[in-house]
Write a structure and sequence with these properties.
8-stranded mixed beta sheet, alpha+beta, about 180 residues, 8 strands, Aminopeptidase
Length: about 180
């Protein structure tokens, strides 16, 4: 697997490894009900946040199941806006992209910009064939990000996930390398 060049710079963002300095801001947005409502893990306690930030700061991307999880911040501002991830899925050349933003980072196009950088990483640097996004079917904001990225809705799995005491449905979107290349 090729080395992942960090940080990744976009027009407005810096995508970088997490550091211990991110813990307070990470916990602040991951502990909010409004952030966690579409996440299977629910709100993070401080101990969980400490474990996750430590893991994310030292990720290795060498085998199926590994995650690249990067902190998202605006250029010129050291404020943590959220995270963007790329997971190496089983099957040849397949990945999954995801994003979580703090309230201060929402509604500004940052999720689309950060996820687009991860698609570029997956297709152009890592040579992936297909990248998908899995999201709660009620998460209209993330569905809109998928559509802006050129991802196609492939399926909605009805009440396939039980988390936080409720059954939820999962929407799946995907884009192929050939589709990505024709639009970029």
């Amino acid at each position: 697997m090729p080395e992942i060049p960090l940080p990744i710079l976009t027009e407005r963002l810096v995508l970088r490894r997490f550091t211990a300095d991110d813990l307070t801001a990470y916990h602040a947005y991951r502990s909010l009900e409004e952030t966690a409502r579409f996440l299977p893990s629910g709100p993070h306690k401080i101990t969980t946040a400490m474990q996750v930030v430590g893991k994310y700061s030292n990720f290795v991307f060498e085998q199926v199941g590994d995650w690249v999880s990067l902190a998202v911040e605006a250029k010129g501002s050291p404020v943590l806006l959220g995270e963007v991830v790329l997971k190496w899925l089983p099957g040849r050349g397949q990945g999954e992209v995801g994003w979580i933003l703090a309230p201060a980072g929402r509604g500004k196009g940052y999720a689309t910009e950060a996820a687009e950088a991860m698609l570029k990483l997956g297709f152009e640097t890592l040579g992936m064939h297909r990248i998908e996004a899995r999201l709660d079917a009620l998460n209209g904001a993330s569905a809109a990000v998928c559509q802006r990225l050129g991802m196609q809705h492939e399926a909605t799995l009805r009440e396939n996930s039980f988390a936080n005491g409720v059954w939820s449905s999962e929407a799946r979107y995907a884009i192929f390398a050939s589709e990505w290349k024709s639009s970029h």
